[in-house]
Design goal:
mainly alpha; Arc Repressor Mutant, subunit A
Length: about 150
């Protein structure tokens, strides 16, 4: 097998293992993986629209909507009107921030440990290289015609 094909295969397997790790931790935390991703997205302190989270995190809008309504029912999220859009802004409530902090505390701790170890070994270019590869791959796949 060509070295570049093997390299891409290894990256794909690594990203699959990362996805699996988040799936497993969500199950252990007693929430769905998409709810974990939604809380993660909302935990940056910025205003977010459902469509923006759906596009950025590759979660279907209907799935985001279901998670949002569950979180609203639990008092963790509220929808606020937007001045520039008919779409409402999704925000964590005070209890939602506390819940999210508790849910994500160990996730962030594990991520920080893993990224520190990787950067210590490979330098900050590790992250830049993965971002570059993702960007280039998306560009190249966009050019391809699937038959």
């Amino acid at each position: 097998m060509d070295d570049s094909v093997e390299a891409v295969r290894r990256l794909m397997l690594a990203t699959t293992r990362i996805d699996e790790a988040y799936y497993v931790i969500a199950k252990r935390l007693g929430i769905r993986e998409n709810t974990l991703a939604l809380l993660y997205a909302l935990d940056d302190g910025k205003a977010h629209y459902q469509s923006e989270i759906s596009a950025s995190w590759l979660i279907p809008k209907t799935t985001i909507s279901t998670s949002v309504h569950e979180l609203i029912n639990n008092g963790y999220v509220e929808l606020l009107p937007s001045e520039n859009s008919r779409e409402k802004i999704i925000c964590l409530t005070d209890s939602g921030r506390a819940y999210t902090s508790r849910i994500l505390r160990n996730v962030y701790k594990a991520e920080q440990s893993a990224i520190k170890s990787a950067i210590d070994l490979y330098s900050q270019s590790f992250v830049e290289a993965i971002e570059y590869f993702a960007h280039r791959l998306c560009d190249e796949l966009e050019k391809e015609t699937i038959e």
